[in-house]
Each structure stands twice: as structure tokens, then as C-alpha cells.
Amino acid sequence: MKKIYRLIMLIPYVSLFFACGSEKTVDRETFKEIQKSTEIKKVNEAELLEFTMKWGDQISGEAQKSLVETLQKAISEKGTSGAVEFCHAEALPITQEVADKHQVAVKRVSLKNRNPANAPNEMETNLLEAYAYNVEQGLENQPNIQKVDNGEVLLYTKAIVIPGGICLQCHGDPNAEIEAATLAKINEKYPQDKATGYKAGELRGMWSISIPRKEAIKNM
Ligand code: HEC
Prior knowledge:
This protein is of the alpha+beta class and about 220 residues long. About 60% of the residues lie in helices and about 15% in strands.
């Protein structure tokens, strides 16, 4: 009697187990899909822009820090002309490393660029001109976000102003602030260089970070 009782108890238990097992996977997939689509719907545009602004600040800050640290190290180890060679080889890979880490595109662009690869596109040109106007008028520049590619990409930009000192050794007056050996190195590596003659406080360029909307939502 006891054995039969146990068997009866076991049958519903086993069938319940299988039923749950198979239904669970279907349910979980459906649930995930629903969750994903509502996640996208739930994100409100203002929150998305606020997040993108903070994230852009963070990414540009990281890239800036990495560049300045390596630049200072290169100057102290190799002198300013040696550091030009170092920037030539390392500036773009350093920004690329930060870009890869966050799955976004990171550039430094300038109207008066040293590396022609840092020339701005049309949208970036408009933004650079607006930032330059503000600097000339003594107005403070705030980072900006523009929607591009039908809103699929959020373009974060932030002005880069020459703080003075160290930057002028390579971007200042070629007849006074840039040493002859450094200038020779700049001309050798960048025959089309436009990035000299800057003064402290002037707009040097801007960070341009293209953040796919999907990546921003994923990271919110
Ligand atoms: C040792 C020389 C040197 C110093 C010092 C230096 N730069 Fe540069 N800078 C370069 C070189 C070389 C490039 C081109 C890098 C490349 O090939 O991408 C460059 C490129 C740039 C660019 C990208 C746009 C362009 O013109 O190609 C910006 C922005 C910039 N520098 C800002 C600064 C600022 C701000 C400082 C001071 C914190 C500074 N640089 C100090 C050598 C220097």
C-alpha cells in the first residue's frame, strides 16, 4: 500500500517538473523580449539626453587625462621635440582605446588642425564655429548634444580651450614659443600643419564623441 501511495505522489510531481521545464524557457524568452521593448519605450528622451551628457563628460575626461599624462611623460623623458614624434604615433591610438572601451567613436577635431585626420565634418564645423564665437565674446561654453543620423546617434561635443603653458610649446607662436628643434619636427611629421599661433584662452578644438542611441540606453 505504501509503495503505491508513493508512486501516485511521484507522477504529478514529475509531470509538473517537465511542464514547468519546457514552459519556462518559452516564457523566459518572451518575457525577455517584452522587457527589452518596454525598456526602450520607458526611456524618456530627457533622461536619455541627461545620461548622454554625463557619459560624454566621463569619456572625454578619461581620454583627456590619458592624453595629458602620456604627453607630460613623453616631454619629461624625450624633450618637447621627441614628444612631437610620440604624439604623432600615439595620440590617435590613445583616443581609439577609450572609444573601444565604451563602444563609441571618439575624436578631437579642429578647424586649424595639425593632423588632417582631425578635420571636422560639416556638423562639427558648425559647432566649432559656435564655440569659437562664444570664446571670442567671452561667453562660457557648455558641452552640447546634437542628434544625428535620424536620432540614431547622439553627438556629444565639448570645447577644448588652450589653458596656456605646456600647450604653447607646440601650438604657440612659432617664432617665440616653439623651439626650433620642435618646429622642425612638427614640419617634418605634419607638412600641412595649421595648429600653431594659438594664444592662451583661445579655442583649440573640441571633443567629438558619437554615441549610438542603443549604447546609451544599454548603459543607462
Ligand atoms: C609635444 C608637443 C605638443 C604639446 C605640448 C601639445 N600638443 Fe596638441 N598636438 C600635438 C601633435 C603632434 C598633434 C597631432 C596628433 C595626431 O597626429 O593626431 C596635436 C594635436 C592636438 C589636437 C587635435 C587636433 C589637431 O590639431 O590635430 C588638439 C585638440 C590638441 N593637440 C590640443 C592640445 C592642448 C590643449 C595642449 C596642452 C594641454 C596640447 N595640445 C599640447 C603636439 C602637442
